[in-house]
Amino acid sequence: MGDNRLPPLVLTDDERVVLQGWASRRTTAQGLTVRARIVLERAGGHSNFVVSARLRVARGTIARWRARFIADRLDGLADEPRPGVPRTITDAQVEQVVVMTLESVPEGETHWSKRRLARKVGMSSTSVGQIWKAFGLQPWKTETFKISPDPLLIDKIRDVVGLYLAPPTNAVVFSVDEKPQIQALERTAPVLPGTPERRSFDYVRHGTVDLFAALDIATGQVIAKVTDRHAAIDFRDFLADIDAHVPAGLDVHVICDNLSAHKAPVVQHWIMQHPRFTLHFTPTYSSWINQIERWFAELQRRCPDRGVFCSVDQLTTALHTWIDIWNKDARLFTWKKTADQIIDHICHYCSRISRPAH
């Protein structure tokens, strides 16, 4: 049903194609999408009242964009320049801030602060902060790294990552490690609820436990065992627990780090007696490649970090409870990087830190 008081809205074939493209959300401008739909609906002969009900916009808005389209066609649907203060910071000044942040430091200091750099370049600290944010610069932050000196670094990366991305058939792959010295801490004062939660900085320690854990990379399920130590014999016994959980007929691949307990004679003797087990060792100083470390971080954040435990038994019960809850709704940690990508990244980093400036 049309609106007889307004002249008909006629579109050319090219205009209709462009408007249909905008209306189908192939543009990032949400307002332009709505405007295109308004024009198409009005060109279809629908009244402002009908279009308002369909698109849930005010009739005055429909009339305004219809009039702008008639006056300027497609160009009339674009946003008009908005009033505002003219730009005062030039591209050269932006480049100066970025270059100084990345390639220099203030005298006697290790990095720039917003206010120090703002005084140096002659602009406000807010402007410096906005430039840093736009370019992702955070000069106050530091990260640590360690390049593995393992002579078999490349071979071990390919071995472990290969198990993640293409696990062998008729086999189970476990990421295994120990989390030692989990403390049973009791705060000296009751924890006060709120956001953030408040707790006393001092505590009474009631002992520690060690946690052995094996993450099934295919299911996210975890086999765990709490002990009072993590000697070689304890690792051997944990391997026996894994053996009891895995159905007969399946090979077992265990990814673990280079702890001496993992290579002890008692462990090697057990492996020889259980030929379906194969140990795969991560490169030295490369715990990041062992997926169980990601699970340990989840456990630490959700259970021990904010827990209050008056005894080792309470801590042990809390750990077992959390692990049981995890296994009821286990989720996978998906490995995405290939071995070549990791090796290329390491080589690129080594190239950067080997330059004369370093």
UniProtKB/TrEMBL annotation:
Q: Where is the Tc1-like transposase DDE domain?
A: 180-315
Instruction: Please provide an example of a Pfam family that matches this protein in its UniProt record.
Output: HTH_32
The superkingdom of the source organism is Bacteria
Family annotation (PANTHER family): MECHANOSENSITIVE CHANNEL MSCK, POTASSIUM CHANNEL RELATED
NCBIfam families in the record: transpos_IS630 (NF033545)
Under which name does UniProt file this protein?
IS630-like element ISMsm2 family transposase
